[in-house]
Amino acid sequence: MQNELLLEVAQQFGSPVYVYDAEKIISQYQRLTNAFAKVEKLRINYAVKALSNISVLKLLKQEGSCLDTVSIQEVQLGLKAGFEPKNIIFTPNGVSLEEIEEVAALGVQINIDNLSILEQFGHKHPNIPVCIRINPHVMAGGNANISVGHIDSKFGISVHQLPLLLRIVENTKMRINGIHMHTGSDILDIEVFLYAAEILFDTALKFKNLEFLDFGSGFKVPYKPDDIETNIEELGEKLTERFNEFQKQYGKKLTLAFEPGKYLVSEAGYFLTKVNVVKQTTSTVFAGVDSGFNHLIRPMFYNSYHHIENISNPEGKPRFYSVVGYICETDTFATNRRISEIKEGDILSFKNAGAYCFSMASNYNSRFKPAEVMIYKGEIHLIRERETMDDILRNQIEIKL
């Protein structure tokens, strides 16, 4: 996205502000579907948790996407955005049976990842079709917090518990219409993904009336200039060939499903902040901005990298800065980063700010959550207003003292 357009957004709506490039979201969606063009029945379930603004959901619906949700609130957002219940899958972790039943009553596809809830649900609702989330015990992902398929993960039903799982299904006579796995995020090794896929194929053969196989997601996007990423075209070619072979072995046509979140929206996002202060200490030059981990927690939480550019002075002499926030504890976005010379008042642009950025924002330090803007067909659209003090106080109740 052109710096001039980002600066126009900052001038029009202030900072900090999130900006999303609709064209990039669309191109990522089309790249993924094109990679699997030889799959007869392909379903893309966008992971709402990555970025849940209703305008983003509507944009993806327009492209033909379905939804992957993890809470009843995300389901309700999807319905509000116009998705049909049959085009939403509910893949929670550790939620109550009551929440699952409430979602099932809406007609949404249920995906269960533990034996206790599976047995309870099967006894009460044997006629409601259920997908089962398998833990393949394959370690994948770029960070321990986003690797979810390993043996110590809280996610999924262990493949080693398959005999007990089958006994529950037989005893309850419940309908299993899908098998699901998700190994983790930032997957680069396609062979590891394909190895986990073989475990899913072997598991699927134990169930006779499946309609779909859901392979999760976790495809890596580039975070730095010249960074590596998942070769989605190579994965598409190899997995398509193997999936089409498996369908013949299974004896019926199945839907191949994915649930990308970061892959679709990460690169589309930019987070704009204003430099409040340039502070030199005995060893470091700090650029302190008008935001903090209350708005963008990923660098502190995941040690994630966000490329930072000074879009107010893109051709300036490069210097080294530690970019920090205004939260009153350690609050570091980047350490010793090479950035064009920064002056107070400059606008810094954080890249890859589309996924798990605004959606993880908070009101810590009683700060307002920022505005969100979408660039659609070259035009600037405000899609969420910046919060005000009324939003901070809205649900608080003052007692008489």
From TrEMBL:
CDD domains: PLPDE_III_DapDC
Modified residues (N6-(pyridoxal phosphate)lysine): 49
InterPro entries according to UniProt: Ala_racemase/Decarboxylase_C (IPR009006), DAP_deCOOHase_LysA (IPR002986), De-COase2_C (IPR022643), De-COase2_N (IPR022644), De-COase2_pyr-phos_BS (IPR022653), Orn/DAP/Arg_de-COase (IPR000183), PLP-binding_barrel (IPR029066)
Catalytic activity: meso-2,6-diaminopimelate + H(+) = L-lysine + CO2
Domain Orn/DAP/Arg decarboxylase 2 N-terminal: 23-266
Residues at which pyridoxal 5'-phosphate binds: 218, 356
Matches recorded under Gene3D superfamilies: Alanine racemase, Lyase, Ornithine Decarboxylase, Chain A, domain 1
One annotated GO molecular function: diaminopimelate decarboxylase activity
Keywords per UniProt: Amino-acid biosynthesis, Decarboxylase, Lyase, Lysine biosynthesis, Pyridoxal phosphate
Pfam families the record matches: Orn_Arg_deC_N, Orn_DAP_Arg_deC
Residue span(s) of domain Orn/DAP/Arg decarboxylase 2 C-terminal: 18-354
Obligatory cofactor(s): pyridoxal 5'-phosphate
Pathway membership: Amino-acid biosynthesis; L-lysine biosynthesis via DAP pathway; L-lysine from DL-2,6-diaminopimelate: step 1/1
Record EC number: 4.1.1.20
Sites where the protein binds substrate: 298, 302, 329, 356
Function: Specifically catalyzes the decarboxylation of meso-diaminopimelate (meso-DAP) to L-lysine.
Subunit field text: Homodimer.
Sequence similarity: Belongs to the Orn/Lys/Arg decarboxylase class-II family. LysA subfamily.
HAMAP family for the chain: LysA
Protein name: Diaminopimelate decarboxylase
Species annotation: Flavobacterium agricola
Gene: lysA
